[in-house]
Amino acid sequence: RLSGMVGDLLLVSRLEHHALSPRPQATPVAALLAQVARAAEVRAGDRRVTVSVDADPDLMPVVDLDLLRRLVENLAGNALRFVDRGGRVELAAWEAAGTFTLAVRNTGPAVPEAVRPHLFQKHAPGEARQLHNSGLGLYLCRLVAEAHGGQVKITSTEKQGTTVSLILPAEDK
Asked: Chain-wide mean pLDDT for the chain?
């Protein structure tokens, strides 16, 4: 865990200082999501959390595989942390209307409206800091999105749970 945190710190620093540029390549995103889902199931342990993947096996966005993996691992880890026993986590990806979207959803409690704008900041204030878990994971996700010319967003309701989405312009093929 400590090694991962140090790796995130180094990656954040490199992205902040533009010392790292994405190395885009056609990436089999369904396989990546399946790999992260398997690891998430192990982390869920005996909490009976269902982890699923919804992505076309032929979907091949042009992204940096290593950076995308870090983003998905961070989002899946957060989704697991905030889902109740017996809940669900879904990793999904699709292309539509000129965009590539990767979403991680859970059936956990809603993130308070006032906190949402701060979750992707480096130093989250107040209640957002508690949800941030003092880590840089969501900030790193924002930096990865921006390095690819995209953005991250969060939607959250009591009935639907929480979804964090990476939205990138789809590459012309």
From this structure: 88
